Amino acid sequence: MKLAPSILAADFTDLQQAIKLIEGARCEFVHFDVMDGNFVPNLTFGPSIIAQCRKLTTTPFDVHLMVTNPGDYIDSLAEAAVDVLSFHVEAEMYSPRLIRRMQERNMIASVAINPQTSLTAIEDILPILDNVLLMSVDPGFYGQDFIQTMFHKIEKLHAFREDHELLFTIEVDGGVSEDNLETLRQLGVDTVVAGKAFFQSPDPVLFAARVHGSRRRFHA
User: Fold this and answer.
1) Which among 64, 135, 178, 211 is least surrounded, fewest beta carbons within 10 Å?
2) Residue 36: domain span
3) Catalytic choice (36, 62, 173, 190)
4) Which of 33, 36, 62, 130 is catalytic?
5) Number of domains in the chain
6) 64 pairs with which residues across the strands?
7) Are 113 and 121 in contact (CB under 8 A)?
């Protein structure tokens, strides 16, 4: 599997050091959670901070939009050289149009889906998606435990991908830990987002190595 440590769990007084740690652990992505205080109660940062971080590293950026109007962010995030961009299906009425815009800006187009939302909400757009970000916790709150019923949802999504011979990748965000890494690998997850598990690990490099020890395919 690939690893995308979430900057939200890092020391915001020293983001440069946090990014160096991600690089040193050979992680494939830096993950950013953009919250607007509307779609989710909390408020984090926006494209300007991401653009500043872009100057610090060449590691690909994986951005998760937890906002009510995701289309408003596409151009500025493309200019910040974001590589993977996820928007919530619950926040967008015209997902295919948004996906095309992202792909036209050379971003990997990804849709995020809340734990309570059925996979049927994204079934029609799976053939045009590059990535699906499955939330395994309620969005907008840091440090939650993995929702156990999500294992079945991951299994269903993986089976759909195999049955229809689709190429989207599966990313899981929320409550990822050493306790569930092996199960996630077996279920066909390609990328995991980890905040607390990475930055608060006694040895983040070792944690990353354990994720990478189960490396699988990734279509970019």
Assistant:
1) 178
2) 2-212
3) 173
4) 33
5) 1
6) 33, 86
7) yes
